[in-house]
Write a structure and sequence with these properties.
By secondary structure, this protein is mainly α. Helices cover 82% and strands 0% of the residues. It is built from 14 helices and no strands.
Length: 324
């Protein structure tokens, strides 16, 4: 009996040991996961912020571009140049064509970000200052969050919405006060640009979760080539180019920085931190645009800018900390 008991004892210990050891690996996983999530969130926030900096130069660069190019030629040429960059990258890396189910989304990105927003804002900037045009960017974060809620079923918290609305009101009040508050034809272009760009951002952010962000804007640009190449040829024949440093620098920036590289990091950032939170970083974009307008275009900035900047930074901090 003792031999039998002694044989049974070790067996029972051996059998009970694995269950005691088994929970150990899962216990370590939750400790590592938050660190990975935080790191990914920080990278995504940085990428989205870089995109905002690139976009903040769009209006001043467009104003420069209009010194050498007509509005239609500027829009067409910037799209063709950006598509040439994107297409070269896609060919060099031998990226396969997107699946057929993604082409509809890419068409929305192309219509909103590649064609609609550049065309409408360029037409607006023919008669509007860059500080006045910044009103569209002040409303863009809120509009993008609304589009994403409708398109993707995202439901941010009440705190998020309160901070987003407060930031949008602060930026809108500041930029409208800068321009005198008059509603003009340029405002119609700007509000239309706001809607199409928000749709393009939302769809691009969704696709960036499926494919790399640079491929999203890359394929959207390439998709527009059958339209932009003939448009560039026709526009250049009717709108003669005046070659000057500002015109060349402006068209190169809006093509490389705003139309391609800026959207690459922007879509990657949106995919990492989510469309609503990334869009709120754009609350700082109008203020950056105003700074560039002073430095590059000689426009005057009122003393209200620091107060608005502080309000916007508080709103951004709240939206970044609120849970979706």
């Amino acid at each position: 009996m003792r031999a039998q008991s002694s044989a049974t004892g070790p067996t029972s210990i051996a059998v009970s040991t694995p269950p005691a050891d088994t929970p150990a690996p899962p216990a370590a996983a939750p400790a590592a996961a938050p660190a990975v999530v935080r790191s990914s969130h920080r990278r995504g926030t940085l990428q989205a912020a870089l995109g905002v900096v690139a976009f903040s130069l769009t209006f001043p660069a467009t104003a420069w571009g209009l010194e050498g190019f007509g509005p239609w030629a500027l829009v067409a040429v910037r799209s063709v140049l950006a598509a040439a960059m994107a297409g070269s990258c896609l060919l060099f890396l031998r990226v396969r064509l997107p699946e057929r189910r993604h082409w509809a989304g890419l068409a929305v990105v192309a219509a909103g970000v590649v064609l609609g927003f550049p065309m409408l804002t360029t037409l607006a900037l023919e008669t509007s200052t860059t500080s006045h045009a910044a009103v569209v960017v002040g409303l863009l974060p809120l509009t993008t969050a609304l589009f994403s809620a409708l398109r993707m079923g995202i439901r941010p918290s009440r705190t998020f919405w309160a901070a987003a609305l407060a930031g949008a009101v602060a930026v809108l009040t500041f930029t409208v006060a800068q321009s005198g508050g008059a509603f003009t034809a340029a405002d119609g272009y700007l509000f239309a640009a706001l809607l199409v760009c928000a749709a393009g951002y939302t769809e691009g952010g969704r696709l960036a979760r499926i494919m790399p962000g640079w491929q999203v804007i890359g394929w959207a640009l390439v998709l527009c080539l059958p339209l932009t190449v003939p448009a560039a040829v026709v526009a250049l024949s009717y709108e003669p180019v005046v070659w000057n440093a500002h015109g060349v620098a402006g068209v190169l920036w809006v093509a490389a920085g705003s139309q391609f590289l800026g959207l690459v990091v922007w879509y990657r950032g949106m995919a990492a931190v989510g469309i609503p939170k990334a869009s709120q970083l754009q609350l700082a974009q109008p203020l950056l645009t105003l700074v560039w307008s002073v430095l590059l275009l000689g426009e005057h900035l009122t003393a209200a800018a620091p107060l608005t900047a502080a309000a916007v930074l508080v709103c951004i901090a709240v939206t970044q900390r609120s849970r979706s």
